[in-house]
Amino acid sequence: MALTLSMIEQLVDWCAESEALAEVRPKARSGFFGYSEPEPINYMDGAEDIDSRERRFLGWFIFSFELPDGLHPGELAASALLKEPELSSALDSIRNARYITAVVASVIPGRGFYLLMEDEEFEVESRTLSRILQKEDTLSLYILPAGHGRWLPGPGWLVWPIRLGPGMRSHLKKLQPSPTEVERFLQGRVKGEEELQKVERPQDATLEAATARMSQTAKAEGQTKLIMGPEEWGDIVLTYMMANDFNGFVKEITERAGGFKSVGEANKWLALATNIWNTTPQPDRGDKSAYQLVHQRWDSDVRYENHPAGGRLPKAARGKDHYKYMDYKMAQLIARFRGEAFDKLEQSLRRDIESKPLPVNTTLKAALNKLPAVWIDGICLCLAVPAERKKWDKVSRIASYLSDQASLARTIASLQPRQREALGYVLNCGGWVRHGQLSRRFGDETGDGWWWNENPPQSIIGQLRLHGLLFVGQMPIGNRHYKVAVIPGELRQLLLKALGKVASQKAKLPSRVADARFYDALSDQLSEIKLRYGTFATEDEEGRRYYERFMSYWSKTEYAKDEAAESFGVEEYLWNFRLPGSDKFLLDCFLEQRGKEFREGIKSGLLNWRGAELKCCRVVALKELLLLEDVDSGERMRCFSLSLGGVKDFRGSVGKMVISYISPWDDITSCLLGYSAILPPGKRSVKAYRELRHGLRDTTARTRRYFARPRKQPRSGLSEIPEAFLKAFDEEQS
After folding, report:
1. Which residues pair with 626 in a beta bridge?
2. What share of the chain is helix, strand, coil (3-state, %, to 5)?
3. Running DSSP on this structure, what letter comes out for residue 427?
């Protein structure tokens, strides 16, 4: 006779109360709950319930704990309670009991459910759980074989609040926590790296409390750039949060702190910053913070045996996004369960994907279909392709985008030179090459992880893979299988054309593009002309009136507190102020008076300075010229700079944003007209630029209106009002 649920409960009762186990139960309980471990216990809400704790302990005690003679308590219980033929069947089931974490594939109401763990499927009978579980739940429990492919649940089951995404499901066997590891997590005692254990990890309830904690610590240690109020911190966090760029947030904290001298110092400040991140209200989540959302999810989602709420969750808590943003976090959690380094886990997952066969003439769709969902999401983000709906929809969009010559050309133009060189190398090898041969020439993929949607790869090969242009797998060569890098067949000719177009555009540039001395000399000459023009525009009798009025208005804006803003105010006045009642720029007046002193080629370029625009650009590359990409138009410009150090001032700024006045100089180059601000990439910088541009334009318009209005005439018979009073009156009215 096969084991039944009622028999399992008899075994549970015997193991919980039998005098035969009276001496070992306390020792086993101490080991399971970690009574001798120094870390404090802080159970999640409800998980500290005595009954549910006891059920989790008994499940482990019955099926996993070993007695001195090597038997499990469950075997003793079966021998004491059952007789043949039931005994043999029960002993066999107990010895083959398994503790698994798996995904609910389907639920059969009133009967049971099916669990999936990669290629294994388990049919589990339980009326109770069939009323609680839903499809795609993640469940940890003991299961016992009951014959005919069926399984029975043991005591102490747990439903996780996090649904696993496709990437995690495909590697679930490597991520199996033990019952004691699960208990440590519920206790809040998950162990991480030794260095991390020394760091206090605050969890304040509000943004105000978190920023106050940061300010107090920063003030004590002289970190003035980290002392900010809730509003300012909130703006910073939301900028990076909306862009899903926690790494950018960490980088900004590092820069504000002036770098870190040790791992411990870095962990301390990043723990405080993470506390602020997690307490910042999110407008798109009902103004709830990450802490509130997580606690709400844990409090309502985590379910275990004898849970007081018991039943199903509302559908609102079970949308498709339930696991979308938690897959990465769940993997980190399980890695910590197992005491593994997270990067080693990522490398292991990646090796599994790269071990799949890959034909040398694979099609793009076939290659994309072999990639995990998180890589497909990363490619969508990289190419700005919509990432909605299912994986095959995304694959179709990516394939359509890369098969379009114009889209592919834009993608190739956005690559760095070494990345294009690597792509050309693979094409010259016939469209495929051994991975080792490629990595020796262009660097390996060390440091590139698994979750491309969270942390995109940074290596040359990794970037080509992230753009959907290169794929890695196994191919038989002779009697062995080799790891190869392959460009899909239908992309090869398109890529050759795109690479040729980029090369031809470079070839059109005159030889002076490669001559740094030419642009250094030109910048010096133009800087001298700008200085003379600036003196004319601000110190000439008429120009001084305009300049003082303009700066008077500018000083009353919110930007007056920032020294850098004054420089932008001067630049705006120089390039965009027109004479009252006229379309003539100040620069026109200067060239009318001094233009004969300049040769014609220089003068035609100076005319382009009129109406120069304040632009915000991403620094794409830096060599003899700056390659900038306008965030508003997407236009790319090769620029030289009139700043004191020329383009050398922008060393180390690739990837960052630069705000500056830029004008065309000739058909192939543009000119940064002097003062520039370099900011971290992200929406916050773009927002700051647009607000600054609006403020500058408004000041220019107000100044022109002031000088365009008719002057008031004094009444006859009255003495003239002193100029000082008129000036004060005008300022008050304006």
Report:
1. 622, 639
2. 55, 15, 30
3. H
